[in-house]
Amino acid sequence: MKKLKYFNILIILLLLLTLSCETIDTDFQETREQFFKYLSVNDLKSAEDLLKKQLLKWPNDASILDLMGNLRFTAGDIDSAMEYYNKAIRVNPGYAHTYFDRGSLYLILEKYDLALIDLKKAVEIDPDYHDFQLALGSAYLHIGNINESIIHLSKAVKIDQNSIPAKFSLGMAYFEKGEYEKADELFFWIIKNHPNSDEAQLLKELIGY
User: Fold this and answer.
1) For residue 162, which phi and psi values (nearest 5 degrees)?
2) Rg of the chain over all Cα atoms, to the nearest angstrom
3) pLDDT at 31
4) Do 23 and 122 contact (CB within 8 A), yes or no?
5) Which residues, including other chains, have CB under 8 Å from residue 165's CB and lie 6 or more apart?
6) What is the spatial distance between Cα 209 and Cα 134, in angstroms, rounded to a whole number?
7) Homologous superfamily (CATH) for 2-206
8) Do residues 170 and 154 touch, judged by C-beta distance below 8 A?
9) What are phi and psi of 24, to 5 degrees?
């Protein structure tokens, strides 16, 4: 079961690395597309140069600062990533995505109290955003607060009823709580509708579904 729990951390990590593709203003559409083209071929240097040019034009744009934080995290420079996240929040304390990104990083670093503060702030700012509810619910699941986990993961599923990660995590929460029928319903849905997904393969391997 430990492997299943850490799979929830992987879900949050993948969200952190991909969510910001939605965060840049439409004025930066070309920059965004080029940025992710560079990332897709692991050309971090070109991606960083691109963002630095944008920061020269808009040094206080929280979305670009947030992207730079994600880039530094991808490069393994945790301290630099945190600096960019902190600056983005100082520039725009109402920018929910950076709270999500910084909270996800805290979670990966096992700084759970700080992670929950940031993830709850992201949900407070935008409670209808699927990925925020998913991340907060997964964080609660990881630290063993099952009831709070179910609350937020249920909201994530309600927002996006076809979300494999949300249904997987919610199934895990019900499984941990001993509500196996509810867990089975979610797990069977994943296996039936998405048999080739990583979640389905993990369920087959570890639980025997």
Assistant:
1) -105, 15
2) 18
3) 78
4) no
5) 11, 15, 134, 199
6) 23
7) Tetratricopeptide repeat domain (1.25.40.10)
8) yes
9) -80, 145
